[in-house]
Design goal:
The chain is of the alpha+beta class. 25% of the residues lie in helices and 32% in strands. It has two domains: 4-92, 2-Layer Sandwich (NE0471 N-terminal domain-like), CATH 3.30.2020.30; 105-366, Clavaminate synthase-like (Double-stranded beta-helix), CATH 3.60.130.10. The chain has helices at 28-33, 85-92, 116-121, 123-136, 150-156, 223-233, 235-243, 292-306, 352-366; strands at 4-9, 13-18, 23-27, 59-65, 69-75, 80-84, 113-115, 138-142, 161-162, 170-172, 188-191, 203-211, 214-215, 218-222, 245-252, 255-262, 264-266, 272-275, 312-315, 322-326, 330-334, 337-338, 343-350. α4 (123-136) packs across α9, α6 (223-233) packs across α8 and α7 (235-243) crosses α8 (292-306). The protein binds fe (ii) ion.
Length: 367
């Protein structure tokens, strides 16, 4: 148990010293903005005031000890609130380090396999499954009943299905007149799905119902690992792919979808936040002429990294297997489907934020 051992009120900021030696500085306006008092927040946690209601010159007027809390009085508005020490301790610290685990072909030795029956019945097993989804961006569920549409039950066990022009879910099998190359026996190079949508689907589920064919092995590649390698090996190419957006497009008789996006998107801290890569639906580049040669070089470099065998995890999805990927990170593909045997999968998309919400609620219930 870490205690607050001292504070130092400088008016516009407050220094906090903890029993483990950690020292934090929090600002008066930040404290006032986060007041937990009933005047400032509804019982549901939502704020009851506008930022423009707060005075720019807000300072901490006085500080006193409460029971497991710090009572703070502000000037000039005279507002008072009790700040929970646990809340101060967790929110004054820098954001926690990322929990992402990057992987390559070695993941095949420790596949993130989870059982359908247990994740559906047991909160602890469901938690372990969703932790793997969050940190690895890929999991394999086994023992999923081979009933058509069961993948919807799986998606709804943690969140919401993202319906598209392909329907609530779609079939992946050989089709004599395919509108999409997924419905042929051709191999498919690794890609993220539906880059022509904005927003792009966060998760993809693929459930194998029939797998009598030869070949057709599934492949997944960690796009964040590939982007990290590109950044290390060729920083100029990495920078170009994070700076310029390109168009993606899909058209059929009744659909025309277009989105502009970067192949690699960074977050506000400069960390890799999204990879979008799809050789089939990337459209005609409309970059400035003087950028085009270097961009093509960067695009090719990234593709070469993504194709490295040491990044590929290959597995044979059989009946009852359902694999799920974070579609903003992990690319998926398949080798050529051979022979005359039947192969039938069903796919659907789901929202990633609803999965992460379910994970946080599970953590709340388990703590
Ligand atoms: Fe796909």
């Amino acid at each position: 148990m870490v205690d607050l051992v001292a504070w130092d009120n400088a008016g516009d900021r407050l220094g906090l010293s903890w029993s483990d030696g950690r020292c934090d500085t929090v600002h008066a306006l930040w404290l006032r903005d986060n007041s937990p008092s009933a005047e400032a927040r509804h019982a549901n946690g939502q704020k009851l005031f506008e930022i423009t209601d707060l005075d720019d010159t807000t300072v901490v007027e006085s500080v006193s000890n409460g029971v497991g809390s710090l009572r703070i009085r502000f000037a000039p508005d005279g507002h008072e609130a009790d700040f929970d020490l646990g809340w101060l301790r967790s929110h004054a610290a820098p954001p926690p380090a990322s929990t992402l685990r990057l992987w390559g072909a070695e993941l095949a030795d420790t596949m993130p396999v989870h059982g359908f029956d247990t994740v559906m019945a047991d909160a602890g097993a469901r938690h372990a499954w969703l932790i793997d989804m969050r940190d690895l961006g890929f999991t394999l569920l086994t023992g999923v009943p081979s009933e058509p549409g069961t993948l919807i039950d799986v998606a709804e066990s943690f969140g919401f299905v993202r319906e598209t022009n392909y329907g609530r879910f779609f079939e992946v099998r050989s089709d004599p007149e395919p509108i999409n190359l997924a419905n042929t026996g051709m191999g498919l190079s690794c890609h993220t799905d539906n880059p022509y949508r904005d927003p792009v689907p966060g998760l993809q589920l693929l459930h194998c119902l029939v797998g009598e064919n030869d070949g057709g092995d599934s492949v997944v590649v960690d796009g964040f690992k590939a982007a990290t390698l590109l950044r290390d090996e060729d920083g100029t190419s990495f920078d170009l792919l994070t700076r310029y957006a390109v168009p993606f497009r899909f058209a059929s008789a009744d659909t025309e979808l277009c989105a502009r996006a970067r192949l690699i998107t960074l977050d506000d801290r400069g960390e890799i936040a999204e990879v979008r890569f799809n050789n089939r639906s990337i459209s005609t580049f409309d970059l400035p002429a003087d950028v085009m040669p270097a961009f093509y070089r960067a695009y090719r470099r990234f593709a070469e990294v993504l194709q490295r065998p040491e990044l590929e995890v290959m597995f044979k999805a059989g009946p009852g297997d359902l694999f799920m990927v974070d579609n903003q990170r992990v690319l998926h593909g398949r080798k050529t489907v051979g022979g005359s045997g039947r192969r039938h999968l069903q796919g659907c998309y789901a929202d990633k934020d609803s999965m992460l919400s379910t994970l946080r609620v599970l953590e709340r219930q388990m703590s």
